[in-house]
């Protein structure tokens, strides 16, 4: 197993754990299908272990790094097609930063701080950037939740939220031994590929229905949706041969969309 040496001390306050396994770094890079005509945004490049490899694709690259102590490492990678912006990704103005770059497809990659994984993804979705794919290192438990199927214990409102926007796939696991310092949890790589067939609905109303349905996960759909016209919902459940005692975790996106359309 190839490992990267000469690491600086990780900062707990920033959730830093440096990926040191070269084989995994190469595997992540291989998962990114960008070409020289595309743009890659990398979140949290750290000392540039992945950046060095994806530079070989010839793509334009913009890195967002919150830790200015990384400058000696990242500044060595700068050129006409590679730029580093030292700011918190959640405070960045990505649209402004990329408006003068010509590219075909946009990819976003990164080893996300695990304590703010979901806020970062929701922030990126809110920007409506027309991303082709997002590939992230996340906590394995989170990857399972994001990519879960109806009926599994991991399935929840965030699963359906992401599914509305993306085809979500857990690509592979990453052992905690591949990091320095070694984290307490296992990790995984997920791919979020933007859907081209997204339903045309009022997103706020649909997500409210989803969130209300999972409000109390162990309660039935009827209990969670007691403020809705449940006769209409029951009609949809019967169509799918489901009883009114069904729980939200048992319903697919197709069924939730049918319920949404019925109560609209």
Molecular structure report:
The structure is a single chain. A seven-stranded mixed sheet has the order 4-3-2-5-6-9-7. A two-stranded antiparallel ribbon has the order 1-8. The protein has helices at residues 22-31, 49-54, 71-74, 94-98, 117-126, 140-146, 157-165, 203-213, 221-224, 230-239, 253-263, and strands at residues 18-19, 39-43, 60-64, 82-85, 106-111, 133-139, 166-174, 179-180, 187-194. It is α/β, with parallel strands linked by helices and 264 residues long.
Number of domains: 2
The string of secondary-structure elements, in order, is: EHEHEHEHEHEHHEEEHHHH
Level-2 CATH architecture of the largest domain: 3-Layer(aba) Sandwich
Mean pLDDT: 92
- Report the structural category: alpha/beta
**Poorly predicted tracts of residues:** 1-7
Distance N to C terminus: 55 Å
Tell me roughly what share of residues is in helical segments. 25-40%
> Class of the largest domain, according to the CATH hierarchy?
Alpha Beta
* CA gyration radius, whole angstroms: 21 Å
